[in-house]
Every structure is written in structure tokens, then in C-alpha cells.
Specification:
Strand content: 15-25%
Order of helices and strands: HHHHHEEEEHEHEEEEHEHEHEHEE
Helix content: 25-40%
Radius of gyration: 39 Å
Structural class: alpha/beta
Number of helices: 11
Strand order of the largest sheet: 7-8-6-5-11-12-14-13
Length: 380
Amino acid sequence: MDMCRERLTLGLLLRLGILLTAVCVCIHVYLETDWQGTPAPLALGCPTQSNHNRGQQSGMKQVSAEAEEQDKGIKRRISHVHTLRKDNQAGERDQDKEDILPPCCPPLQLHRKAPRWHIDLQPWASENQSLEDEATRFLNYITAPQVSCASLLGKEATQGGHTSDWVVCLDPKYSLVHRIQRKRCRVYSFGLGLKERFMERFLAGSGCEVHCFDPSLKEPHLQEAEMWLHRLSVDWRDPNPAIIAQRQYANTKKLATILNDFGHRELDVLKADMESAEWKILENLVLEGVLDSVGQLLLEIHLHWAGFEVGGDDPSVVRYWFSLLKELERAKFHLFHVHSDPAKPHLFLHKNVLNASSVYTLSWVNTKWKPSRVRDKHKK
């Protein structure tokens, strides 16, 4: 009897042990399966240790990427909501304030085009590429104004009975006369000496900000009456830094560099008498897109020789000159006035070609120029 009870107790204990073992195995399998399927650690970006195959790892990475994309989408939606709120608030303001309060700070070089490497040469005037044919085309071009100007400031800018060869257009269909009335115009004048400053003095007396650049001045910066005088001139390249270090002052710079140094964005009038350097300077203005900042261009051209650093035979030189002027036309500069001094020698590349004068004063107006309404600061 005792033996039967002992066997029954051992059997119960064995069955109970087996049952507990099975329960523990089930719990372990359940917990292991639930832990592997939980995306929370991946969503939080926490690394996990596992011995599973690469397919399971790539699946886990895909879940993580999807969770990150959801977070980014939420951020974009929140940002979009903030933007809509700001736009709605701005739309409720008075639209008339746009004319009173223009944009704060227009970017300095947005009006500048990307620099080019060379100008586009025009086709030859004729198949034989002769000097006479090139000269005829060039002279016909510079002596035929392309637009009319109802009011020219030149005869009015006189002193002692002398009439200036330089004129600007005050036609109301262009911006200069309106800028003068608002006293918001700016003038750059490059040349040697002060004998031909009648137009500059007139514009300065009318309220324009006038800067005269003359490398022969003794002082770096002077103020004479209502004009600024600077010991500086324009060039088609900036000076070598080593030369600047030796001289401690550079008296020639590119126009883009001068504008940047002075903190100026635009010029209503650019006048230049550069004594045969005008062709390379004009090429630099075209290639760097600086002409987009200019309202009217007044230029004295010299035809008795090719000019500084202009090479080639005579027909090629004249073709180069003509191509530069066509670049001006492409930039919406149109000729409105031409002046030639009959007292000057009649030399065209050291020859008498078509009885052409050796010096012409040309005036262009940028017909598409729209000056900004913000007054930029002057830096001395």
C-alpha cells in the first residue's frame, strides 16, 4: 500500500514538472517573438543585437526609414502651417505700403550676369574682309542715333559760353529726369583734369551725387563744392596685389571693384574719357555684366589707333570695335547722341578713311533700365 502511494506521488511530481517546463517554454517563445516584432527601439533609433539573417536586418532598416520619413512629413506639415499663418498675416496688411516701404536690402549682384570669357564677334562686313567695308559699316553705325531724346542736357550745362560735348538724355520716358527731381541720381565721371566738368557740376547742383575720378589728384579723396573727387581711375583689370602692397594705394581698378568698394549698386550716368583704353574697359563691362547697373553711358572713342591691348590687322580691329558696340545694343543700350569735333585730325587707324574723325563722343541710354527704390550707402 505504501509502495503504491509513493509511486503515485512520483508520477504526479513528474507530470507537474513536465507541465511547468512546457509553460516556461511557451512563455519564453512568446516573449522572444514579441520582442523581435516590436518597432519601438527602431523608431527611436536605438541599435539592437540579433543573430538573425540579413533579410531580417534589412526589413528592420526599412521600418526605421519609414518611421523617419513619417517624422519628416510631420515636420513639413508643421512648417507649412506656420508659413500659411505668416502669409495670411502679411496678406491682411495694406498693399499700398509696398510703395512706401520698398524691400530692405536688394542683393548687390543679382543684377549682374555670370562672367563671360569673350564677346561674340559679328560676321565680316563682306567676303573680302577689307578695311573699307569694315570702316563703312562701323562709321554708319556710330553716326546714326537709334532712339530720339526730346530733351538733351548739354547746351544748358555751359560755363563761360562754352558748350560741353557731353550730353545726357532728360526725356521723361527714361528714368534720369525723374531721379533728378527726387534727388536720387548718381553719376560717375572718369577722365583727366577738370576742364570738362560742366555737365557734372550742373548735375551736382541739381541734387545728384557726383563722383569724379582722376588719377592725377594729389589726395585720395576730396570734396569740391557738391562733387566728390577721387584719385582713382577705371581699368579693365584689377592691379596685381604685389603692386598694391608696394605702393600702398591702387589708382586703377575695374568698375565692378569700385562699385563694391564704394557700396554702390547702380549708376544713373557713367561718363568715361579713357584716352584709347575705352575698348578694353568696355569689353570688361560687357563680359562681367556691369552694364546692367548703368542707366546712361557716355563714352569718348578714339579711332586713330587700335587702342591698348587690341591686336590684329586693321579689318579685324574694326570688326572687334563693331562687335563691342553690338554687345551694347544687345544689352538694350541705344544710341541717342553723336558728336565729332571737326578740329580733331581725320585719322582712322593712321589713315584717312572715308574722311572719318579720330574722336567721337557717343551717348547711349539703357531703355530697359529700372533703378531700385532703395538708396544704397556711400563709402568713402
